[in-house]
Amino acid sequence: MPVIKILPHAQLCPAGDEFQAEPGVSVCEALLENGIEIEHACEMSCACTTCHVVVKRGFDSLGEIDEIEEDLLDKAWGLTPTSRLSCQAIVSDEDLTIELPKYTINHARENH
Ligand code: FES
Fold first, then answer.
1. What's the rounded mean pLDDT across residues 47-68?
2. Which CATH class is domain 3-99?
3. Residue 42 Cβ < 6 Å to ligand 1
4. Lower Cβ count inside 10 Å, N or C end of the chain?
5. CA–centroid distance, residue 39 to ligand 1 (Å)
6. Vertex 72, ends 22 and 38: CA angle to 5°?
7. Which residue from 11, 33, 8 is spatially nearest to 22, judged by alpha carbons?
8. Which ligand 1 atom is at minimum distance from the Cα of 69?
9. CA 103, 108, 109: angle at the middle one, nearest 5?
10. d(CA 49, CA 106)
11. 52 lines ligand 1 (CB under 6 A)
């Protein structure tokens, strides 16, 4: 099974983490299953940007980005050439290194 390495993030995962994930799950699901509470404001339906991650290693193994994801990513805070919406990025058989961006844009939360 591929290993997902998470780089340290001040709030979500201060010491970083490393765990195995089943091929076929989304990166977002794998994070949540392993206790990393990444935001997923639209419940993983590819309609927000709060689950944005930067893929430091293994980007090409995650499959194609579709147009909807690409358009949304344009609005994500801290966009990079290897950014993905983690709920749309499906783990295959390659190890991954993931960085969680420092900020997210959560309109739902900002309005409260
Ligand atoms: S949770 Fe909204 S796009 Fe991933």
1. 95
2. alpha beta
3. yes
4. C
5. 8
6. 45
7. 33
8. 3
9. 55
10. 8
11. no
